[in-house]
């Protein structure tokens, strides 16, 4: 039975073994155990840092993160991580042990923004499982400069997480923006109630 816990955190049961927690905060400060946890970086295809959460994660992780990203092979010139795919690096100076980089769709120019956003979440969870990550924290992928409307993004993200979270103990959304947090919490109550 899904229920919201007291305090700021919204907690929802995804399966017998997986829980979703939605909280307001700074994803660069998030960690659970520092060994089997990962934060998701809403990267650009070059994976070399940028604005918003991407830039904040690179700054918090230190220059080693950029160096690790440079070593990720390009699949075509200027593209290390195509839209909807995911790559993993160590977390370096971050409290979380790993960073899973994914590229969300640019809402107005992607041919299938819903499919691309779904793939970004699904592939992050797949990479997490392959690397024995038990705890993962997502931002609201594509909701910043990529212009994905919050309501639509939550409607894609939450059911995708529920569908593919098996094998991961806790999935967190750590949302910096209060408006995004409010939308995610409301949509989770609508979409994830058992």
TrEMBL record:
Record-linked SUPFAM superfamilies: Macro domain-like
Domain Macro: 7-192
PROSITE patterns: MACRO
Transmembrane regions: none
Any Pfam family: Macro
Superkingdom assignment: Eukaryota
InterPro entries listed in its UniProt record: Macro_dom, Macro_dom-like
SMART domains tied to this protein: A1pp (SM00506)
PANTHER family: GANGLIOSIDE INDUCED DIFFERENTIATION ASSOCIATED PROTEIN 2-RELATED, MACRO DOMAIN-CONTAINING PROTEIN
Full protein name: Macro domain-containing protein
Organism in which the protein naturally occurs: Hibiscus trionum
């Amino acid at each position: 039975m899904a229920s919201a816990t007291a305090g700021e955190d919204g907690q929802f049961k995804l399966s017998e073994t997986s829980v979703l927690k939605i909280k307001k905060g700074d994803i660069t400060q998030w960690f659970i155990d520092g060994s089997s946890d990962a934060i998701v970086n809403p990267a650009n295809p070059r994976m070399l840092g940028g604005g918003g959460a991407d830039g904040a994660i690179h700054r918090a992780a230190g220059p080693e993160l950029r160096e690790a990203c440079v070593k990720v092979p390009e699949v075509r010139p200027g593209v290390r991580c195509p839209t909807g795919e995911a790559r993993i690096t160590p977390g370096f100076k971050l409290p979380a042990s790993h960073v899973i980089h994914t590229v969300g769709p640019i809402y107005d120019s992607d041919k299938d923004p819903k499919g691309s956003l779904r793939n970004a979440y699904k592939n992050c969870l797949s990479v997490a499982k392959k690397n024995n990550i038990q705890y993962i924290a997502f931002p609201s992928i594509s909701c910043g400069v990529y212009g994905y409307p919050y309501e639509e993004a939550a409607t894609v993200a939450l059911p995708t997480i529920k569908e593919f979270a098996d094998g991961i103990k806790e999935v967190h959304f750590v949302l910096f923006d209060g408006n995004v947090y409010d939308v995610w919490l409301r949509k989770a109550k609508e979409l994830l109630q058992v």
